[in-house]
Amino acid sequence: MANTNVLKTKVEQALIQSFVNKYTGVRILELSTREKFYVFQGTEPDLVGVNNENSTLYLGEITTSGYLGQRGKDFHIGAVKKVFESFSKFYLYNLSKDEIISRIAKYYSNLRLENISCHFIVPEGSRFIKALGYRRRLFQTGYMILDELYLPEETKHIMIDVLEKSQKEMKK
User: Fold this and answer.
1) In this structure, what CATH number is given to the domain that contains residue 39?
2) Are β-strands 145-149 and 115-123 bridged in parallel, bridged antiparallel, or unpaired?
3) pLDDT tens digit string along 70-89?
4) Is residue 172 in a domain?
5) Cα separations (Å) of 50 from 30, 90, 111, 143?
6) Does residue 14 lie within any of the structural domains?
7) Closest CA relative to residue 58, chosen from 100, 95, 99
């Protein structure tokens, strides 16, 4: 049985670290599940970080779905669904930006946030990105940025192993 928990505990954490490396000055906020639920009204992002220098709250949705494609092709219905769900969340976050910032201030009163930057995060080489077609326009709206991030080789091998086992289980 594929241990998909590893995707959350190891792969997602490696992608978060890669994000922090890419966006210098970002530090991850450690909000509890309850705090995240309150701040984001039940639509918790996978990544919550801040950069005090540019007064920005960074929010990210992470997916490994579609990394291997689906049935030998690049397109992956689950990953595309995640793109649309993420876009919807990010749109809502932008609509309620001031509320989110004030709710975070209840836990981190020393933060002076003015902006929100939303990111859709996938590992470099993710096959489904090649097959987005017209859906790529969602990344041109200004509501979310596509980040294809580096994964260390060891972590990439772990991810691929879990995804391949999961694919085999789906075929049964």
Assistant:
1) 3.40.91
2) parallel
3) 888 998 889 999 999 999 99
4) no
5) 11, 16, 8, 17
6) yes
7) 100
